[in-house]
Structure formats: C-alpha cells, structure tokens
Design brief:
Elements: E1 2-7, E2 10-15, H1 20-35, E3 46-49, H2 65-78, E4 82-86, H3 92-105, E5 113-119, H4 122-132, E6 141-148, H5 151-158, H6 163-179, E7 183-189, H7 198-211, E8 215-217, H8 233-247, E9 254-258, H9 266-275, E10 279-284, H10 298-307, H11 326-336, E11 353-354, H12 357-365, E12 383-384, H13 392-400, H14 411-424, H15 434-453
Parallel strand pairs: 3-4, 3-10, 4-5, 5-6, 6-7, 7-8, 8-9, 9-10, 11-12
Antiparallel strand pairs: 1-2
Helix pairs in contact: 2-11, 3-4, 6-7, 7-8, 9-10, 13-14, 14-15
Amino acid sequence: MKKRITYNGLIATILIFGGMENHLFAMHRVCCCLNKARYTFIRKIEIFDTTLRDGQQSPKAAMSHAKNREYMRLATKIGFDIIEVGFPAASNAEFNRVKEIVQLYSNCPSSPKIAALCQLRIDQIEKTALALQYGISNNKSRIHIYVPVDPNLIQASFGNRDKTQIIRDVYFFVKKASQMGLEVQFSLEGYSRQGENFDFSTDVIRAAYEAGATIINCPDTIGGACRREKNYFVKQMNRHAKIIDREYPNNNIIWSAHCHNDRGLATENTMCAVYDGPARQIEGCINGIGERAGNAALEQCIMYLKHIAPKKPSDPFYTGVDTRQLGAISDFVHENMLPRQPHSPITGENASTHSSGGHTNAILNNVTAYQPFHPEEVGKKVKLIFGHSSGGSHAREIIKSTGIDCSHRDKAHFARFAQFVKNKYQNQIKFISDEQVVAAYPEFCDLEDQIESNSDEQMVSADPEFCDPDFYDPENQ
C-alpha cells in the first residue's frame, strides 16, 4: 500500500510491504527527511547588495543622486535580488534619495526589492516606511531593522536597559513595520560577538519572527570572526536555526549573513555561512567597499558560488546574477566611489593581465592556462603588457595585430626581437607600450637585413647571453 505524507512542501512516499521491519525502516527514513531543516532544500542564494548604503558610509565614497540612479540601473541589469539603498532617517537628503529610487523602480516587475535601514525606534520606522511607501503595494519594499546583541554594543546603545524590555520592543516595533505592509528583515548587530548572550539572541529572534520578520540576518559586524573559533558565528547560526525550526516547524525564515573584512575573512566567512550554515541570503558590496576594511566583495562571493564545488554537485547552489555584468558594475564603483586595487580578485585590472613570457605564451594558446575562469565570464578581456620578462610570442602577437605578415618569420626571429626591444627601452622599468614595440620593429628588421647581407658577420643578437622567457629548458634549471 502507498501512503503520502505532506510536510512543509515536502512530499514523502512510504511504501509498506506488509512487514513490520520494512514499515519501521520506511518511517525512520521519512522522519529523518522531515527533520531536515527547510533551508537545506533551498539552493538559490539571494544577493543583498548594500553598496549604496554600507558602501556609501565609507569615508569619501558617497555619490550624487544621479550616480546613485546610475548604480541602481546597473544593479538591476545584473540581477541582484535586493538593493539596500540607504538610511532614510539619517538626513533629509538621504530620505529624498531613497524615496526617489523607490519611485523609479518599484513599478518595474524585473527590478529588485529595495531595502532601507533603520534603528529600533518608532520615529525611524515611520520615516523609513514613508520613504519606501511606493513599493509596498508591489511587495518591493523591505525595511531592515537592527538591534545589538554584542554586550559591548548593547551597553553603547542602550546603557543598562533591561533585556526583557528590549525583547518587548523588538516585538512591538517589528509588528508595527509588518502591519504597514513592509517586508521586514531583522539584524542582530554584533552577532558574531554575542558571547554569553546566546539565549538573549534566541529570544530576540523569536520576538522578531512572531512579529512578522521573515529575514533574520546574523552579521559579523566587527569583522573579527574566524572558523577556528570555538563559538564561530556560523555554528551559532546553525544552533539558532535548529531551535527556530523545532519551535516553529512551518517557518518561512530566510537566514542571512553580513560579514565585514577587518581580518580579511569576509568572503570566506560569508561562504561558510552558506556551505556550512543556514544562510540563503548573502550581503556585501561591489569591490568589497564598506565601513572600515569593507564588506564581503559580492563579485568574489558570486564567482565562488559559481565555480567552487558545492556539497551537492548534482544540485548546486546558484544565484540569479548575470556574471557578465560584474566587470561593468565593478568599474563603476572604482570610478565613482573608491579606487579598486589593480590586483583585486575577479575584476581587478591585473586579474586578467599578463606580462611574463611563459604566461603570455601559454595564454595565447589557451586563456585558462593561467586563469581560473575565462575573463569574459565577468565581462573582462585578457590583456598582455610587454615588459622586461616578456618573450618572443608576445612580441610576435603585437606585430601581427598591426596587420603585418609574420608568416615567414620563425620563433627565433621574434625571440631576438623581444630582446632587442627590452635592450632599447631598458630604462622603462614598469612596461613597454605596444606602440613602442611596433615602432622598434622596422629598426630591428633593417639591422637584421644588414647583417644578413654581410656574409662575414653572424646573425644579430642584441645580447648573445639572452634567454627568451617563452621557452623552458630543463637542462638549464
């Protein structure tokens, strides 16, 4: 006989063949399946971009209203799920900027949800709701409320205020926001340093969820978390998720992680929250900008999710992001907010630029020989810069790009030419431009022709001791 059991969207089929042993075994398998947390079946990772909020809180990173609108256009095109655009209660200018963006994008079906941050205060909640009002009817507006759970931050924010009262306030104010029609995200500020406040955090999460919050964010606010810690915040997230799943088995919570980069671990911590924890939303900024040392770099997280082997290869994590647009939005932040390091992973200028002879020789034959992924995946191209470690293959490629027929020239010819160029421009330490390489070619060819016409002289070598970097000779290693 067949019996169908439906639980929280999961349909399990039990086949009972008559024997008690088979029946118990089948029931055990179903119970194990039903007890798995709901989030384990969710494979899409929501991308929460806070470049316009946390990013613009970086010193000297703020942009004009027009540039904010331009960034929003790029973020919409790339396919981010939620854009946090500001803190409306901070100033009238911030309020107007948020309101303007909501008005422009709330009626577009393909646009992301728009979030705005506020503290646990009724005046801020009301002002934030006013800024987000045009997106409420289309379910495009999310209010992001936070309260500290780190003992140090609690003291700084609330003094000696009773924790029971804080929990009551969480319920009251989140309920107020939810009743206004807003989607509510609730953050436990300083979650990674909650210390002895685990039970308090549990009560806060309970209150927020019962009042209507559907996204629970567990940030590493100070950017100090490390997976080697005994009470690593991802372990704490798992504990909290299990408690909530046990007490509210039909909950619809999306767990989120927001990590800062003060110890250089923001991307790794964010990915741990997904791969080893319950997070199905990740937060960060393009190019990793943000307060102090910045946030998790979204472009790094997105490409990590795309390429790093998932725990379930047949059912991998994924995002809705068009990665081909990452280069453009990264360049925009670089040009209009804060400079990006040339060696920044994924989209940095040097991330797909090569100079050394061995590398350029391989890249010309196979782009991924020295690249973890094809740069076109993020809207970038491979660039070759001629320098003092470059070789003949690169020199030949530069000459060929001008339309000159090089088919009758052998590798040795261009190996000699590369050395000629490096000797000619030996005082240029950083690089030698393609124009300079091209300009040197006629001079080099004339010199070779002169020597070839003189049977008493040997073929030119600008330096008879040179070794072309294109070639590897194991006998000389």
